Amino acid sequence: MREASTVAPLEAGFRMPAEWQLHARCWMAWPDRPDLWGENLADTQQAYARVARAIARYEPVTMIACPESVSEAARICGSDVDTLALPIDDAWLRDTGPAFLVRDDGARAASAWHFNAWGGKFSRFERDAKLAERLCAHLDLPLYRADLRLEGGAVCVDGEGTILTTESCALHPNRNPGVSRSSVERELCDALGGEKVIWLPGEFSVGDCTDGHIDGLACFARPGLILLETLTEPDSERAKVLGENRLALRGVTDARGRELEIVEMEDAWQANPESDTFCASYINFYVANGGIVMPAYDAPGDEPARRIVERTFPNHEVVQIDVRKIAIGGGGIHCITQQQPA
Predict the structure, then answer these.
(1) What is the pTM of this model?
(2) Is 219 assigned a catalytic role?
(3) Which of 66, 136, 169, 335 is catalytic?
(4) How many Cα atoms are found within 13 Å in the side-chain-facing hemisphere of 18?
(5) Average pLDDT, the chain
(6) Burial class (CB in 10 A: 0-12, 13-18, 19+), 122
(7) CATH numbers and ranges of domains, the chain
(8) Radius of gyration of the chain (CA)
């Protein structure tokens, strides 16, 4: 890893591209801890491998695994997926890996947050806290370390200066106690090369260990258009929360002054197996080079959600993968992946 300048990425001309821009590679991390996954570990590993192989149809994929698990990961994932041995604690690469940055002159860099296991909810996260640094050293990329405690799933960008995030996560005292909203906005823009931050209230569910990551609630599908999770189980408390997120976007403009178009997409509430941590989000998908790899839950909402994504990304092939053995850990396909721009 090369030393990064003390100048923030924004000032140095770097920005995080939108996820639909061309990728060089997708990065993932291998689950191998029985204390986290219990009796589901083997099934969860198979689900991770299915996601990796699906993405590998469209772009190179590297699965990071602990040195003692890298052979097993290679065997289960198959020859279409590369592996890299690095010390890790958990398997949510979106949250622990770096945010890759580009500059118009072709230079590349990365930003990373200070990872504290989603507000101190889990022990043994020291290796994950160093993963961004180790991966950037492997790639010989300069790494900028922001001042915020945060995770990659807490932010979404449109590649044109707009950043989407949630109050429930970025302003939570378990991450950034006493830090003002304006300070968080400044840090986000500095780290990701942004110009404007749009805030959603987020999610205030006791069982959501992410405290309302944006990637389970909303995402940019193109500049000026947001896919928004909504219309969940009627009369539920979560339906009210998602309704508040919809209201927060009313009349809002992006960094280029466009009023946002909203496409609503019902979550997979019918698939929830009485679990506080189950991630039932169809929006938690991965945009690959020419393909979308999105969740399926063997639920009635699978096909309607697929049709919405197909209409929203008409130039992409849409593939659905059963994520129930991933979702029990509190995340989905977007949570376990991180794109590296071409």
Answers:
(1) 0.96
(2) no
(3) 335
(4) 15
(5) 94
(6) middle
(7) 9-341 (3.75.10.10)
(8) 18
